[in-house]
Design goal:
Elements: E1 2-10, E2 14-21, E3 26-33, E4 45-46, H1 48-62, E5 70-79, E6 85-87, E7 97-98, H2 106-115, H3 118-125, H4 136-146, H5 148-153, E8 156-158, H6 160-169, E9 174-175, H7 192-198, E10 208-209, E11 214-217, H8 220-226, E12 233-239, H9 240-247, E13 255-260, E14 264-270, E15 282-285, E16 288-294, H10 299-310, H11 318-325, E17 336-338, E18 356-358, H12 366-392, E19 398-402, H13 409-419, E20 423-426, H14 431-441, H15 450-457, E21 460-464, H16 471-488
Parallel strand pairs: 1-5, 5-12, 9-10, 13-19, 19-20
Antiparallel strand pairs: 1-2, 2-3, 4-7, 6-8, 11-12, 13-14, 14-16, 15-16, 17-18, 20-21
Helix pairs in contact: 1-6, 2-4, 9-14, 10-12, 11-12, 12-13, 14-15
Length: about 500
């Protein structure tokens, strides 16, 4: 009898469920999409019930690939974060979920900054994440202030993937890393003093588990919908970016990962010790930390330029878009794009930032504009990597690219040229699914097993070396890219 693992990755635009062999081969994967609504400027919401319908449908589809002698030994979860799902005692959502790209909690972020200084926040949470509008604590305070009827009926506020865990197991919990800025990620606990100071009820906080710990077993009801066998252990898992780091095998010194999805997430792992809460490093796993972070747009910038400059965005065709970009020489004849279409997170953390096309002339055509967008996203990756390299004190010698964007040979090469580094494509593009499956296979209470599982289950596939002919040009344009933001940042108006 062969053992298999199920990895579930609840992303921004779709959920992906994979059936994974113990050696890391993804035997089958299925995806189902759902919509994001923007009822007001800066708001981003999704319906939790749609997440579950999509997850159950995708899981049922991949279970068709389970061999007759196959046995599912575990389920692992990965998910977009931070998000907020307010649920009643019976697990029913009390309203739409607030997802990671939402900026509504600006007033609450300022209030938190006035009530809790950075040193105190590091003591309460274990690191110095900024109290901005995307901070989970800011959004939690927004819910308490603006949705009191929800809060009065709430049993807990969960992360998106924790809502899936609840549907699978009837158990409410979260992991310490998904609870960043709310829980202390190193000590794995909540500090009640923080919530007392902010007037937040601690009753909203779910139990904290380590990502490899079992939250519960698949119930008979969930099994009927997903076809995952009843009684299968479900690991609580963690943030999709964390799972993608595991699924990319980027635990080695000097190996960075670029998770190319709706937005980009860039990370460089270190075992630097002792850990300092104000170092700019994010806790990843016991003894491991990373520098980097998420940008606000990635592939979404390609969808924007398609709809804005070429044709109807509903018929988005990445092949046509790449062919258009290839009509321009590298460097887009000096055109530089700041991809801050929805503000920016790492490395500038400015929700008021906006996109810029610099050096535009009447010589530029659609091909230059499109290439500039591809290159602008690549510059944002380089910018985050530059900051991450300084924070960890280590040079980067290769970048492993994963996620949907890694399927594009053209974009991988653009990134290699802009970064001046080899870009390594992995055998599996679904690194978050694989990372979730790795957690599913990690024994409870044995986090030290992670490295062995990663080494066994992750396979690099193809290398894209940088074209040295373009190095000087891209080095110069990257300096222009950074100088642009410095020149215009004070001109952005609050929105």
């Amino acid at each position: 009898m062969a053992d298999f693992l199920v990895g579930i990755d609840l992303g921004t635009s779709s959920v992906k469920v994979g059936l994974v062999a113990e050696d890391g081969r993804i035997v089958a994967v299925a995806a189902r999409t759902y919509e994001t609504s923007h009822p007001y400027p800066g708001w981003s919401e999704q319906q939790p019930e749609e997440w579950w319908e999509a997850t159950a449908s995708a899981a049922a589809a991949v279970m068709d690939a389970l061999p007759a002698d196959g046995h599912v030994v575990g389920v692992g979860l990965s998910g977009q974060s931070p998000g907020h799902v307010v649920v009643a005692e019976d697990g029913t959502p009390l309203g739409p979920a607030i997802i990671w790209s939402d900026w509504r909690a600006g007033d609450e972020a300022r209030l938190i900054s006035n009530l809790v200084n950075p040193e105190e926040m590091r003591r309460y949470t274990g690191f110095g994440f900024p109290a901005n509008a995307s901070n989970p604590l800011s959004r939690l305070l927004w819910l308490v202030r603006h949705r009191p009827t929800w809060i009065a009926r709430a049993a807990a506020v969960l992360q998106p993937k924790d809502y899936i865990a609840l549907q699978l197991t009837d158990r409410m919990a979260t992991d310490q890393y998904s609870a960043f800025s709310v829980a202390h990620v190193i000590e794995r606990c909540y500090h009640p003093e923080l919530f007392d100071r902010l007037g937040l009820p601690t009753s909203l906080l779910p139990p904290l588990l380590s990502p490899e710990e079992t939250v519960g077993q698949v119930t008979s009801a969930a099994s009927a919908e997903t076809r995952i066998p009843e009684g299968t252990p479900v690991k609580i898992g963690t943030i999709d970016a964390w799972c993608s780091i595991f699924g990319a095998g980027a635990l080695l010194r000097g190996v960075a990962v670029d998770i190319a999805g709706t937005s980009e997430v860039i990370a460089l792992v270190t075992d630097q010790a002792p850990y300092q809460a104000d170092s700019g490093l994010m806790p990843l796993w016991p003894g491991l930390f990373f520098a980097g972070g998420p940008t606000q747009v990635g592939a979404s910038a390609l969808h924007w330029v398609w709809g804005a400059l070429l044709t109807d965005r509903r018929s988005f065709d990445p092949v046509v878009l790449e062919q258009t970009a290839q009509g321009s020489e590298p460097g887009a004849e000096g055109l530089v794009f700041l991809p801050y279409l929805r503000g920016e997170r790492a490395p500038i953390w400015n929700r008021h930032a906006r996109g810029v096309l610099f050096n535009l002339t009447d010589r530029h055509r659609a091909s230059h504009l499109v290439r500039a967008v591809y290159e602008g996203v690549a510059y944002s990756v380089r910018h985050v990597l530059e900051v991450a390299s300084a924070a960890t004190g280590q040079a980067v010698y290769e970048v492993r690219v994963t996620g949907g964007g890694s399927r594009s040979a053209f974009w991988n090469q653009v990134k290699a040229d802009v970064l001046g580094l080899p870009v390594i494509q992995l055998e599996s593009h679904e690194s978050a699914v694989l990372g979730a499956a790795i957690l599913a296979g990690c024994p409870d209470g044995r986090p030290e097993m992670l490295s062995d599982l990663v080494q066994r289950m992750v396979r690099p596939a193809r290398s894209y070396p940088p074209d040295i002919r373009h190095k000087a040009r891209y080095d110069r344009l990257f300096e222009t890219y950074k100088a642009l933001y410095a020149a215009v940042k004070d001109l952005y108006e609050p929105v």
